[in-house]
Amino acid sequence: MNKTKLFTIIGSVVLTVLIGVISVLADWSNPLGLPPASNTPAPLNVGAASQTKTGALTIGSDLTVNGRVCLGGVCLSAWPDAAAPIPTGDLVNGVCGPAASRLFATAPNDELCVSGIASAVSTSGTTWSWLCNGSGGGISSPCNATRETNWVAVATANKPSQSTDEIWATEKSVSWTSNGPIAGVRVSGGSDDGGYCYASWGSGNIATWRHDTSVGVYNVNNRYYDGSSIYSNPIYVPSTGGYTCPRGELQLILATNPDDSDHYLCFEGYNTCPTNPALFTNDGTAKICQNPWGAGGFATKTTPSILNVLAETVFTLKSNFVDGPSAGAVNCTMEVLYK
Fold it and tell me: What sign results for the dihedral spanned by CA atoms 207, 208, 209, 211?
């Protein structure tokens, strides 16, 4: 090979390399940011790590999934049959409602689920059960409430003795808020002297008392009504000392106490108790006459019909008594039957 031909070959190779370098340099542009900014996104691969693709994905053949397929938040692990088409809409999980924390004597039918669709309520022993079924592929939640078949004592109002005889004590009042629908209310109690137990809840009331309400000391004005006469508040004097009414009125001596003091009442007119029979209202008002003697229990009184009192209703139990010649007290209990 002569030198001219060799130089020609070498020159051609060098020229070709230079042209390629110039072409690459012509297409090159600097990165828009420091690494790893503006890097080319990683491609889908066969690795075990989860991957997310922002753009559309087109597959030219079958897609095989070993797991669940999720569309719009609805995920399926098996292809549904014709009777159960692919669910659509938002995913809704079943969540138990306020009824799940309450007591019921009969099957609950309100506030079963916060979300989801409630199933039929079943019972076993002391438990009510139901499901709050999810939809759109959401989960379902089992729910339970306590089944109550007995009367439950929920409030007491006990009033101890007071120092002043023959007049009404200061009324005792307690409140209770129901934690479930109520089907019945009853009150019971007793006193050393005349008195009452009284429950009210805005839409109803139930009361019981010791004596006939046509005679006795009236709780509105503390006057004594004996069925034909009205007497003033009592005056206490030693049984050996006697007493004369200030205007010369007729007197009534109620009793001689163990402490040797007589109870004198001065005549003021004629009448029976202004409120007879006794009056008890749904808003908590009581008007009644009771004798200040004759200790004993009250008859248990129950609401005469099935109630439908809603949960979270406030009940008020009140008690009071007429203090007798030496001492007195009253004890009251309210019981409820859950619906």
Answer: positive
